[in-house]
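Sequence of Ligase-associated DNA damage response exonuclease (Haoranjiania flava).
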Amino acid sequence: MDKLLQFTKTGIYCPQGKFYIDPWQPVDYAVITHGHSDHARYGSKHYLCHTFTRPVLEYRLGTDNDFETMHYGETRYINGVRVSLHPAGHIVGSAQVRLEYKGCVAVVSGDYKTENDGISGVFEPLKCHAFVTESTFGLPIYNWLSQEEIFDKIKQWILFNQQYNKTSIFVAYSLGKAQRIMKGLEGVADIFVHSAVANMNKAIERAGIELPAYKILHEVEDRQQMQNQVVIVTSALLGTNVIKRIPNGATAICSGWMQVRGSRRWQAVDAGFAVSDHADWGGLLQSVKATEAETVYVTHGFQSTFAKYLNEQGIQAYEVATQYGNEEVDETVNKTEDN
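Predicted 3D structure, token representation.
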């Protein structure tokens, strides 16, 4: 079974199919789980991804690449290996990669979350012999509020700000988190976004996904229009003129790291909301158990703790070193834009 997946210095490799999944070095054939920069990298000769992910890859990697797409549940044979993509629930277009060869099944989950956020699709548990799981929030302290509960808290904060004529500024990753916040706050206030978010919005809209109405920050001549409304920017803009010039702003970070007491104070912002596009501790455990996998490979995050716990529960688990990381840390934009 282990021979269906190999963990190499280039990435996760399927020797029978002669392809890699989310490689971190250029390869001949790359199967991509989703469009975040730590999973989709430039330089490969051929890319296979979900239909919704292609416009994001075209924006990030260039339109002159060789892209091939699949829908969820569609099957393709690559050198005799049966390959299909299934919802991961992480962001729009995110997919788990299911591999089947001579009766053996392996699933590479990429990044995933288990609660339906209304825009990213619903995570689909898949039975398999081997399962590759992330562990970004693989500690018991990370247990998210429900989608409804966390957005109720966010809406209450917006209403509080509006009582004092304040603009509610949300710091969120441009791909995934920003669109989720837009969807959750649709109809609550007018939405303004930084150009980095707008660029991702346009890519997602090209995939046929409808997003709530929004205005682009640098296209607004009278910034007083933003007062009492909602503005979404990226973390790279904290402390820059982009935020400072928003009228009477109150700033909140939306990230799973806000679950830990003191994170908001460390970031010197007004509020923090534990909104994550990754599974929490309970979601990770639930997902692993649902696969009924004989072997589990734990990648980026708290892999040591999570793998140890799985072994204590009688599930054979191994830590795997990868170059995947926290996409929120990897966010980069031109800080001088819109200032």
